[in-house]
Specification:
Layout: H1 32-46, H2 48-108, E1 121-129, E2 141-146, E3 149-158, E4 164-169, H3 171-176, E5 181-187, E6 193-202, E7 208-215, H4 222-274
Parallel strand pairs: 1-7
Antiparallel strand pairs: 1-4, 2-3, 2-5, 5-6
Helix pairs in contact: 2-4
Length: 314
């Protein structure tokens, strides 16, 4: 495809040598308005003001034009460098965002790591599908039973979108039940038991503990599993979009740079044309001298040119 920003074609005429007095519109069929304009145009080019003022300013005009396009070339070069850097920085930022998001997905696929606090005990429990251990189940409740009374719920927490539940024991419970094992029970939103884990957590002052609990497949967790799958699909779709963002930015940058490169080529050609030295006027051909011919007397035949100046034989 031909470039849409091709440079103008310069007429290689040396207008300082052009004879504007020969400008005429003879022989053209013109209506009244066109004839009037043509007449004014002809008067302009044959006027003394034209030859003195406009023709004299042509070299200066060319010089200013060259300065303009030279500066434009520098501006385009600067614009190209800045544009290339801008798109590359944006693409790198998109790559970094993609990496960060993938790392966040990996973090949510493991139990939450909690910072220890001196006078309390904290536990992190991740509830996952037994069939798909990478699938965290949201909306399930984790209950901790009192080791002194196995029918009393001491603490309760609900799993988040990624299946993680945080258990934070206050100082008085932690101190009173230090070094004691506790049973966990997982129930649904209607408080119906799903599974129980004996001696799942041991309280220790100033410590933390992480556990992964696999929930058996059953109709009781169908809704939780459906929500988990939707969350996973959404994360994967977002990761895919983020991964393609940097490629899109780089392709867009290439298209923008193609346009700037086209303008650079055209402006460079314009500058090159303006920098050419003016064409030298064509030398006029020298007249060829003619051989003088002697006059011929009446009644006498013309003699060959080579013998006309010879004398009579004696």
């Amino acid at each position: 495809m031909r470039s849409q920003c091709g440079p103008p074609k310069f007429d290689e005429q040396d207008f300082s040598k052009f004879d504007f007095s020969r400008w005429h519109l003879d022989g053209l069929t013109l209506d009244a308005a066109a004839a009037a304009v043509a007449g004014l145009t002809e008067k302009l080019f044959t006027s003394e003001e034209w030859s003195k003022n406009f023709q004299a300013t042509l070299p200066e005009f060319q010089s200013h034009t060259l300065e303009f396009f030279t500066q434009q070339l520098k501006d385009l070069q600067k614009e190209r460098a800045e544009t290339a850097a801008d798109f590359e920085n944006r693409a790198k930022a998109a790559d970094q965002l993609t990496d960060d998001f993938r790392k966040s997905i990996q973090v949510t696929a493991t139990p939450v790591v909690i910072d220890a606090v001196s006078n309390i005990f904290q536990g992190s429990v991740r509830l996952v599908s037994e069939k798909d251990p990478q699938l965290g189940l949201p909306g399930l409740r984790v209950q901790v039973f009192d080791p002194r009374d196995e029918k009393t719920v001491l603490l309760e927490s609900e799993s988040d979108l990624h299946g993680n539940a945080i258990l934070t024991f206050p100082p008085e419970i932690t101190k009173d039940r230090d070094q004691r094992d506790m049973n966990l029970r997982i129930v649904d939103a209607e408080n119906k038991p799903i599974t129980t884990i004996a001696n799942a957590i041991c309280i220790r002052i100033g410590q933390t503990e992480e556990r992964v609990v696999k929930i058996p497949e059953s109709a009781a967790i169908e809704e939780n599993k459906k929500q988990a799958l939707e969350t996973r699909a959404d994360r994967e779709n977002r990761a895919h979009l983020l991964a393609g963002r940097s490629d899109i930015l780089r392709r867009q940058g290439e298209k923008v740079l193609e346009v700037i490169d086209c303008r650079l080529r055209d402006t460079g050609e314009i500058v090159a044309e303006l920098q050419k030295p003016p064409a030298s006027p064509t030398a006029s051909p020298q007249p060829v001298p003619e051989t003088p011919v002697a006059p011929v007397e009446p009644g006498e035949a013309a003699a060959p040119a080579s013998t006309r100046k010879r004398g009579k034989k004696k």
